[in-house]
Amino acid sequence: MVTLNVNGRSVQVDADPDTPLLWAIRDHVGLTGTKYGCGIAQCGACTVHLDGQAVRSCALPLSAVQESQRIVTIEGLSPDGNHPLQVAWRALDVPQCGFCQSGMLMAAAALLAEKPRPTDEEINDAITNICRCGTYNQVRAGIHQAAERGISG
């Protein structure tokens, strides 16, 4: 049994210590916004925040997460879906299929928290999530739109 701080709530998870954080979040906590894509930390669909840093939860075992660490999922980014990045995503029609978007949003929010006015190069370096629909230009535009409003994730 492990205690996790997920979206500001203390939750008990009864799972093997080798269980990836992704499956603890989805199967044990019941938050399904974080997606499974590749299982090897390459695509980024599973991105969540761990103490404010974007991490790929599919490759992070529960044993590596401390009870004191804050985990934020896409559900915790905004209680009403109106985080400035989510507003920009809707305004610019960023998602197509949408599968990768929760991970993209979480990566973008971590970037803006670190660099409130990122350059295109900084966005390209930080957002390594894979979008099979190829919406990278819209993602970049959405990050810039949120940054222009002076909003950090």
TrEMBL record:
Q: Which domain of life is it from?
A: Bacteria
In terms of InterPro entries, this protein maps to:
2Fe-2S-bd, 2Fe-2S-bd_dom_sf, 2Fe-2S_ferredoxin-like_sf, 2Fe-2S_ferredoxin-type, 2Fe2S_fd_BS, Beta-grasp_dom_sf, Diverse_Oxidoreductases
Query: Pfam families, per this entry?
Result: Fer2, Fer2_2
Q: What keywords are annotated for this sequence in UniProt?
A: 2Fe-2S, Iron, Iron-sulfur, Metal-binding, Oxidoreductase
Q: Is Oxidoreductase among this UniProt entry's keywords? A: yes
**Keyword Metal-binding part of the UniProt annotation:** yes
Q: Which residues form a coiled coil?
A: none
Query: Per the database record, which ranges form the 2Fe-2S ferredoxin-type domain?
Result: 1-77
What this protein is called in its record is (2Fe-2S)-binding protein
Source organism = Sabulicella glaciei
Recite the lineage of the species. Bacteria, Pseudomonadati, Pseudomonadota, Alphaproteobacteria, Acetobacterales
